Amino acid sequence: MEIVAHFEISYYQTLNQASQLVSDSPDFATPDHLIHLYRAMVLNRVFDTKAIALQRTGKIGTYPSTRGQEAVFVGMGDALAKEDVFVPYYRDTAVLLQRGVTMAEILLYWSGDEQGNCFSSGSEDLPFSIPVGSQGLLAAGIATALKIKKEKRAVLTVCGDGATSEGEFYEAINVAGVWGLPVVFVINNNQWAISLSRSAQTAAKTLAQKAIAAGFSGEQVDGNDVIAVRERVGAALKKAREEQVPTLIEILSYRHSDHTTADDASRYEPTGMRDAEWKKEPIQRLRQYLEGLNVWNPSSEEKLQEECVAQVEEAVNIFSSIPLRSPETMFDHLYETLPDVYVKQREQVRSDHE
Amino acid sequence: MSEITLVEAINQALTYEMQKDKSVIVLGEDIAKNGGVFRATVGLLEKFGADRVRDTPLAESMIGGISIGMALQGLKPVAEFQFMGFIYPALNQIINHAARLRHRTLGRLHCPLVFRTPYGCGIHAPEHHSESTEAIFAHIPGLRLVVPSSPLRAYGLLLASIRNPDPVIFLEPSRLYRFAKQAVPDEGQALPLDVCFTLREGTDVSLVTWGAMVKETMAVAEQLEKQGIQAEVIDVATLKPLDMNTILKSVEKTGRCVIIHEAARTGGIGADISAQIAEQGLLFLKAPVQRVTGYDTTVPYPRLEKFYLPSEKQILNAVRFVMEFA
């Protein structure tokens, strides 16, 4: 017997748990840029804390927390170029914020209002995708269009670890490989798909290796290291734009929260696991590094916290001031022009609820 | 002008629109080099190249999803699903994304695309190749559901579907693909969507049908004429949204209605038409509305399929019942 193919999966980290550089610092990672990323992560956490409080007090509906996964989303959001297209799953709040979507829009979405998907930023990005694993195909389709139109733009799409068991995930990476599509698939492997642990999801040693079956490369990145995420996602997007080659990146993170506010992880998460994982969390890791560079100190931290709280409060005020749409508008964007037969139903909504 | 079949009319419409509109992309399994298993897309690859005429890997959900993605970037994908029985894996993409992206983004994004598929039984095909499950799509808000029944209507309705800014499910009756020829002027003239076509006017009974059953229904109308019964034949053509106005006006005139469809009876579109006649036109009726449909069984394998398909005799019996009711 002979070996006909051989594959490897790499793992990338720049800052270790003790905030020490373990790889060369990437070119982008100037102190100013790192402070920019740090601020975005802190804002994400302050927003997340507020969103959970709003859910607990009945101001918004079910909400999926991003706590402890800030580096994943901020790193991706920063790596995207403005002209790229982003196809999120439902936990990508911080990416959308960096894409110009407002916090008020995010809150509107989770309060149950389609206005949250309008993206006043004028973007071509997709809204959150709830049907698990389905959005990778949309990303592949967008990438196909970009390739046909010969536009040098890339598509970034994200899913969770559970989504890699979906057939549509495989269909998406397969077509991306065989058609050479400018798309980057990110798996935010936060170790949990609601209650199912990563080890119960698949016998595969890594999720990154799934790319190999589709004919392109896959790699792992430390998801508590925003520098590493930014660097590898950025490199993959560049490769997609310039060489029309897809990449799969498995970002290793941990879900420091229930799946959503409707979940109770104490039913299945081993005691002590979250506390142990918290030692790796990304905000403290970068803060310690910045302090070591003498570009951050307790007073800059205090100021940032105040700014973030004020910014989130302002967003909550905007969100709270947006009135309920009138009920018959549920028909207004069903088709470009509402067919006559539904015009009658639209009128009926009014009369039924007068 | 030479006469062409329904499947050739599909090809003619695709060719016309691809020529006219560079954003139209045709994709599906075996559609490029092979020209499609029914040859609906034959010659397109040679005319328009591999960027716009794309053989896809064998994955139907993928065909659905990438079509949506392309549509979101301003292209107009016309995707072929090889048989209706194979569109089911794509329902997640069709229902969860195509049908509602406009709605959930309040118009920021939308999906102008056409999903074509051959449907219906009567061509002695293997199992899963004979489905008439159009009611699934009629139930989904945001979709259009269009079914041609002749070469002329296939050409005009497909052009209209491609030009439509919303997702269209376009079901092609495979039994009619090569059944009859018609002269179809290749002038790019679309037919209207969202309206029924009255194929034959009459005063005694309204026969409401679509797709391949138009063939048997028209034959019955001719037989009835010899018996002195004037049947009005309505080809519904767009099953969603449903043009009840035309049907109700006809029933107001005739007072009698027989609905004919190949799909299974329970939950079929005939049930909805019948319910709407009861809701809005009960006092027009001289007899209860009758349905002549496929049985509530899985479509049998080819050796029994002719016993599944509604026959002219069954339609005649239903007409006799409503004529003799009172």
Task: Tell me about this structure.
The complex is a heterodimer of chains A (354) and B (326). By secondary structure, chain A is an alpha/beta fold. Chain A is built from 13 helices and eight strands. In chain A, the strands form two sheets. In chain A, strands 1-7-8-4-3-2 form a six-stranded parallel sheet, sandwiched between helices. Chain A starts with 9 loop residues before the first strand and ends with a helix. Chain B has 326 residues and is α/β, with parallel strands linked by helices. Chain B folds into two domains: 181 residues, 3-Layer(aba) Sandwich (Rossmann fold); 128 residues, Rossmann fold, CATH 3.40.50.920. The radius of gyration of chain B is 20 Å and the shape is globular. At the A-B interface, helix 5, helix 6 and helix 13 of A face helix 3, helix 4 and helix 5 of B.
Short key terms for the protein model shown above:
heterodimer; A: about 350 residues; alpha/beta; 2 domains; six-stranded parallel β-sheet; two-stranded antiparallel ribbon; 13 helices; about 10% strand; B: about 325 residues; Rossmann fold; seven-stranded mixed β-sheet; 14 strands; about 20% strand
Counting DSSP H or I runs of 4 or more residues, the number of helices of chain A is 13
Approximately how much helix is present in the residues of chain B? 25-40%
Tell me the total number of β-strands of chain A: 8
Report the CATH superfamily of the largest domain in chain A. Thiamin diphosphate (ThDP)-binding fold, Pyr/PP domains
Kindly, what is the distance between the CA atoms of the first and last residues of chain A, rounded to a whole number of angstroms?
78 Å
Radius of gyration of chain B, taken over Cα atoms and rounded to an integer in Å: 20 Å
The computed structural class of chain A is alpha/beta
User: What is the approximate shape of chain A?
Assistant: globular
Mean pLDDT of chain A: 97
- The topology string of helices and strands of chain A comes to EHHEHHHEHEEEHHEHEHHHH
Number of domains of chain B: 2
Walk across the major sheet of chain A and give the strand order: 1-7-8-4-3-2
What is the mean pLDDT of chain B? 97
Radius of gyration of chain A: 21 Å
Number of helices of chain B: 12
CATH uppermost class of the largest domain in chain B: Alpha Beta
Shape of chain B: globular
* Total number of strands of chain B: 14
